[in-house]
Amino acid sequence: MSFVNAHFVSYVTDLGYSRMLAAGSFSLIGASAIIGALILGHLSDKHGRRKYLSFSYALRGLGFAVVLLSMGVPFLDIPSLGLVPLLIGIILVGLSWNAVIAITAAYTSDRFGVSRLGTIYGAMFAMMPLGAGLGAALGGVLFEARGTYDVAIWSNLVLLGITTILMLTVREQGSMEQQSRAQVA
Q1: What angle (nearest 5°) sits at the alpha carbon of residue 12, between those of residues 9 and 16?
Q2: Cα–Cα distance between 93 and 33 in angstroms, integer?
Q3: What angle do CA 8, 27, 68 make, to 5 degrees?
Q4: What is the rounded distance in angstroms from the CA atom of residue 19 to the CA atom of residue 25?
Q5: Which residues, including other chains, have CB under 8 Å from residue 27's CB and lie 6 or more apart?
Q6: Facing residues of 78 across strands?
Q7: Lesser CB count within 10 Å: N end or C end of the chain?
């Protein structure tokens, strides 16, 4: 998401829209993030974390694909589709934004137990700034090299696709605490 944080307003102004529209459309992320976290978090409580975490990543990928369509895809002969896909895409990205964080914490707790949550989740969040910094920097490098954000967006799509598939392939099992209790009994 660091790409969006660092480059979204520039991306929108590069498409020819005003800074006010760019900032306003960026604010849609925050509004939709609240809605997405509440809805997807509730659904993951009821129906399982892994599939809703995977769904959240797929939803973000769909959002990036729609955002990409706003600028067009020349090598596929898809013209720029304009503002509506841009807004729809960023809302989809926003719906997954905070949902991923909440569901990841709950999934980690379910999978490894509450006693290990702080260590594992803390380690994950210690590493995230490194990835965020790298993502934002690479987005800038790719833009400088190509004059467009297309490769950066395609990179996000590929990585989100891989993440979605990896989450779907994780075997379901009880938490480590449940397994320990079962072994003792």
Answers
A1: 130
A2: 8
A3: 35
A4: 10
A5: none
A6: 73
A7: C
Joined tokens for residue 17: 């829209």
**185 residues of the chain, pLDDT tens digit each:** 678 888 889 989 998 999 999 999 999 999 999 999 999 999 999 999 999 999 999 999 999 999 989 888 888 889 989 899 999 999 999 999 999 999 999 999 998 899 999 999 899 888 988 988 998 999 999 999 999 888 989 999 999 999 999 999 988 766 555 555 555 55
DSSP 52-82: HHHHHHHHHHHHHHHHHHHH-BGGGTBPP--
Which domains, ranges and CATH numbers included, belong to the chain? 2-184 (1.20.1250.20)
